[in-house]
Amino acid sequence: MFIRLLSLTAAVAVLATPAWAADYKLGSLEIDQPWTRATPPTAKAGGGFVTITNKGTTPDRLIAVRSAASDKVEIHEMKMDGNVMRMRELDKGVEIPPGATVALKPGGYHIMFMELKAPFAKDAKVPVTLVFEKAGSIDVAMAVQGMGAAAPDQPKH
């Protein structure tokens, strides 16, 4: 009886566990964990983050991002220049090499929302369209984490 109950409990746990699949899929691209941070009421800008994996055999490139949440959206890079942190727009976007995963994350490549139309509120979703050179466009929803979040809340295993 105990073994049967243990087996049933294990089966329920497996069925209740979220799938570890991509959040979004576009051709050979897998788009995981699109997220952003909550912004203060007077903020004019915010950052967006996402992980993109190219399961294909040819490179692709994230060339643009659009969102109704702000007047302007750009793909940026932050990097150290000596002791100074510099941020710049990437005119040609970000390459996603075949077989590689590229993370747009705090302190590196990221999406820059400028002239926000309203603050990003914790637990809301920000609609975004990611535009790729070869794969085309896909609409995703960025989950808004708390101000200063380092990454989205991860499921516990």
Which architecture name does CATH use? Sandwich
Name of the CATH homologous superfamily: PCu(A)C copper chaperone
For this structure, what is the CATH class? Mainly Beta
Find the count of extended strands (DSSP E, 2+ residues): 11
Helix content: under 10%
**Approximately what portion of the residues adopt beta-strand conformation?**
over 45%
Q: In words, what does this structure look like?
A:
There is one protein chain. This protein has one helix at 2-16; strands spanning 24-26, 29-37, 45-54, 60-66, 70-81, 84-89, 94-96, 101-104, 109-116, 125-132, 136-145. With 157 residues, the protein is mainly β. Strands 1, 2, 3, 4, 5, 6, 7, 8, 9, 10 and 11 form an eleven-stranded mixed sheet that branches.
Short structural summary:
With 157 residues, the chain is mainly β.
Helix and strand topology:
Layout: H1 2-16, E1 24-26, E2 29-37, E3 45-54, E4 60-66, E5 70-81, E6 84-89, E7 94-96, E8 101-104, E9 109-116, E10 125-132, E11 136-145
Parallel strand pairs: 2-11
Antiparallel strand pairs: 1-2, 2-3, 3-8, 3-9, 4-7, 4-10, 5-6, 5-9, 10-11
Name the descriptors.
157 residues, mainly beta, Immunoglobulin-like, 11-stranded mixed sheet, 1 helix, 51% strand, globular
